[in-house]
Amino acid sequence: MIKYRQARVLLGILGSLSFFTCAMAFISFHKKSAVPITAGYELALSFFGILVLCICATYGAQDFSLGTMRNLYLRTPSRAGIILGKVIAATILIFLLNAYLMVLSLSCALMQAQHLYLNDSLHSGKVLLAGFLGSCALGFFGTALGFITTSPVVAIGVGLLWSLVIESVMSASMKGSAPWLPIVNSVNLAQGGLKNVPAVSLTHSTVVVLGYLAFLFTLAFLTFLRAEIT
Amino acid sequence: MLLGLVRPTSGHARVLGQSIEKPASYLSRVGAMIEGPAFYPRLSGRKNLQFLQRLSGLPVKGDAIANSLEHVGLSGRGDERYRGYSLGMKQRLGIAAALMSDPELLILDEPTNGLDPDGAREIRELIMELAARGLTIFISSHLLEELELMCDYFVMIKSGTIAFAGSYRTLVSSQVQTLVVETEYEIDLPALMRVAGDRGISATVVGSSLHLRHELHPMSVSGADFNRWASEAGITLSRLHIKVPSLAEIFFNTREESQ
């Protein structure tokens, strides 16, 4: 993100994230009692996950569209190394944005809630960790899509189409399919496995998400390995 | 293929003694600009070079970058954003990036493509200056006129096979040269043809001039000899010069011969 110097994009991301987080905090805490302090954060994770998927899809593919992938390869002639570098960069970005989301959400909670409770710090810690891991899963899906499609627009389109439309249709029309879908399980993972898909454990979601990630990154690696870098 | 950007389906090649199947073994010693320069639009030229230097694992040295920018004539524009550069400036920044690692081999793909005459001349002079310092430069281009001005060793590829590989001098000397002669009076052209024909020299009237080719050998009759023969025949010449085929003409002739 530093090398792209897209200040307006960054401001837009932070602005939309802030707006959505404050809105979720308002919904979670306004005139409610006995609400866990992380309620707003958990609610905001769904939007955050989609945002992260789009951001990582863009930055996964942008070097192809700019033509700068040639420069990357000529100086680090390991295609696997380039993918790994993108994943590490995505992780750092997601961590920073997640930290911002968390701080903002907790601040809103402290300001708005009348009867907050911190049921236990471990729970809150687990929620925050799960949120970060679930966000990473969605971000990694986006990164893999970026490498496979080599186009930011196509990567975002495929990601949004799949996560917002296809999985919704499949969940509604194919009974029993929801526990096996990647985005559903990623969001389940992000929200601590408590709300999204009933009777689906965190372990199940983790295994499903890792399976899909392994498949997508294998596909991304094989695609990139055979691709002409032009 | 030489840089590992495209995987060959068959065949072998070596760069700096290393097989192209293992580009990592020689890429650190090669500088390249392929299919035009590509940099991050919102970074300045200087910051783009700094980024590439870090990516190469080289220590980020301001002096090295400043020298590279000065070398390509961008020292005063290095802090401007890349997206504001002209095409010629972008090409020069691309060459600066290729030179940063002090390579043993420089590979340039269409370095003057899309440039105006001034820009093309600047790039050409830069390349020739680098070559004069001993750097090996490999240029791929379809602009034969530009190659003719810059290069001293050529490889012509036709349908995937090498049609010619050698020095420019070898290439030109293997061609049939033409002596172009114009007479003071056009009516003397037929008589001049007879002068040539009497000495076994093939002659063709082209417009108002006579083109002379020796059938079996490259041009072996000197302009002075022919001038003397024409004078002995009472014919006054107004112009006489040896026409060396251009690289483009040689290229098309070679292609026709191979077909």
Gist?
Chain A is mainly alpha-helical and 230 residues long.
Structure commentary:
The complex is a heterodimer of chains A (230) and B (259). Helix content of chain A is 77%, strand content 3%. Chain A has one domain. Chain A has helices at residues 7-29, 39-66, 69-75, 79-112, 121-149, 152-173, 182-190, 202-226, and strands at residues 33-36, 115-117. By secondary structure, chain A is mainly alpha-helical. A two-stranded parallel sheet of chain A has the order 1-2. Chain A starts with 6 loop residues before the first helix and ends with a helix. With 259 residues, chain B is of the alpha+beta class. Chain B has two domains: 14-151, P-loop containing nucleotide triphosphate hydrolases (Rossmann fold, 3-Layer(aba) Sandwich); 176-243, 2-Layer Sandwich (Alpha-Beta Plaits), CATH 3.30.70. Helix content of chain B is 37%, strand content 21%. Chain B is built from nine helices and eleven strands. Chain B has helices at residues 45-55, 62-71, 87-99, 117-132, 144-150, 168-173, 189-198, 223-232, 247-258, and strands at 14-15, 18-19, 30-33, 105-109, 136-140, 153-158, 161-167, 178-183, 202-206, 209-213, 237-243. Chain B has a four-stranded antiparallel β-sheet with strand order 9-10-8-11, covered by helices on one side. Chain B has a three-stranded parallel β-sheet with strand order 3-4-5. In chain B, helix 2 packs across helix 3 (87-99). The longest helix of chain B has 16 residues, at 117-132. Chain B is elongated, with a radius of gyration of 25 Å. The two termini of chain B are 27 Å apart.
